[in-house]
Amino acid sequence: MKRVLWLTVLALALPLTAFADSVDFTNSGGILAGCSNGLSLTGSALIAVNGLNGSGLVTGNDLGSVSFSTGALSGGSMQMGGTFAAGGSFTVTGNGSNGIPNGTIFSGTFSGPVTWTLVTLANGTHNYTLTGAVAGTLGSSLHTDGVTVQLTINTGRGFFNGRTHISSGDTNVVVPEPGSLSLLGTGLLGLAGLVRRKLKAS
Question: Are 119 and 151 a contacting pair, CB within 8 Å?
């Protein structure tokens, strides 16, 4: 019985280690434009990548680009903050500099609602933050899930009028480890075999 208990604990713990790695992308600048049909970011430079292909932090003024589009506005408003539907697209592209690959690094979509938040500062000016879950493909075939947070520059005392500059953005995608996933499968198969034997014996 103790053996079955230990295998159960192992099987439950493995999913926590199966998703240990992540890749972080930082972007700067670009134009965020939007209406009730959705928001889109263009012209934002990729300035830092951390953890890609097991490498450390790589920085530069222009390593590539980050662009996206959301689904349509599903609640709230463009000026006061709201929610955009899942869908659209999210793309991180490298330009081959500083060891970053040339071409599409991450290609995906917003996998859940996208939150558009208005923050009114003590001085009466406004900031906006866009936050959403993303899912897609890292490199040529590795499926990943993650989250992006994009910050606009202060819009002064006025509100978002359909077009503004992005100050900075950060996108973090979680990378499954194939070795750990295989180990998880093996552990679950072993557990199933033990349970089957116990049921036959009783």
Answer: no
Taking the CA of residue 181 as centre, how many other CA atoms within 13 Å lie in the half-sphere pointing to its CB? Answer: 7
What are the angstrom distances between the C-alpha of 93 and each of 49, 96, 135?
A: 11, 9, 16
Residue range 54-102, pLDDT digits in tens:
889 999 999 999 999 999 999 999 999 999 999 999 999 999 999 999 9
Phi first, then psi, for residue 177 (nearest 5°) are: -95, 115
Report the predicted TM-score, pTM, of the whole model to 2 decimal places.
0.77
Alpha helical stretches, state H, 46-112: none
Pairing of the two strands 57-69 and 81-84: unpaired
pLDDT score for 100: 96
Helix (H, G, I), strand (E, B) or coil at 181: helix
DSSP H or E segment with residue 137? strand 126-138
C-alpha Rg value of the chain to the nearest Å = 22
Token pair of 74 as six digits: 């599903």
The number of helices, as runs of H, and strands, as runs of E, in the chain is 2, 11
What would the two tokens of residue 13 be?
A: 């713990």
pLDDT beyond 80 at 201: no
Amino acid at 81: G
User: Which residue reads 């493995």 in tokens?
Assistant: 14
Poorest-pLDDT segment among 9-13, 89-93, 106-110: 9-13
Contact criterion met (CB below 8 Å) for 118 and 83: no
**What 3-state DSSP class applies to 49?**
strand
